[in-house]
Amino acid sequence: MAEINFRLDGKVVMVTGAGRGIGKAIAIACAQAGADLVLISRTAEELDATATEVEAHGQRALPVVLDICDLTAQDQAVTQAVNHFGRIDVLVNNAATNVYRDFVDVPEEEFDAILGTNLKALFFISQKVARQMIAAGAGGKIINIVSAMALVGGEKRAVYCASKGGVLQLTKTMAIELADHHIQVNAIAPTFIRTALNEEAFADEEFYGEIIRRIPAHHVGKVEDVAGAVVYLASPAADFVTGHCLSVDGGYVAW
Fold first, then answer.
1. Which of 4, 89, 207, 215 could lock onto 11 through a cystine, CB 3.0 to 4.6 A?
2. Which residues are catalytic?
3. In order along the chain (255 residues), what is the average pLDDT of each group of 10 residues?
4. How many folded domains does the chain comprise?
5. In this structure, is the dihedral angle defined by the CA atoms of residues 16, 17, 20 and 21, taken in order, positive or negative?
6. Residue 6 lies in a domain
7. Domain with 108 in it
């Protein structure tokens, strides 16, 4: 039996939203698995901190300050990454935004901002990176961080659910179209994950209790849970996995 390879040695991984939270954990986990990183975020200070941790694991890091919704800047970022490292082997689309609001109260500008970040920006950076992968002729991986809300509904999350559901369908179509180029495209659907941004919300005992009642594992997830799933899908161990959505949710969508 051939050895199963979960390593990313020699790979170049681009992670959007890499400055903090889940994106930062993904970048560090990929570095631990042997990858060099292209780090994308709007905040230079956060990117520099992530880059320092990547380099502490003996890997190279290229921080690129970028508003992911700026499609021209996307072109420049992909070109910069290819000029620096020679190629991009893996793209992890993690950057996203959300506003909690009742469906009947959502204004147009809020709808456009959420869809623009979560779906449109993801679509076009994936297109740009896929073109580079096709030109390089060495295959690749594209991993879209969606959400359990791509699979179920959620109160005050109408636009977010629509955006993530759109990304899930896009994942399947990309997987079909890019298969001939040996590019695997998959999604990861986390449920509630503990990060610095949601600690205040989780401190609300009633809110936290409601979440826990929906999760059979009886606790929320860690950023490392999502990062581990990314490393698997980015590795040679997942070369025959494409068009799939991997739930990282403690059983949340199993109800």
1. 89
2. 160
3. 95 98 98 98 98 98 98 98 98 97 98 98 98 98 98 95 98 98 98 90 91 95 98 98 98 94
4. 1
5. negative
6. no
7. 12-250
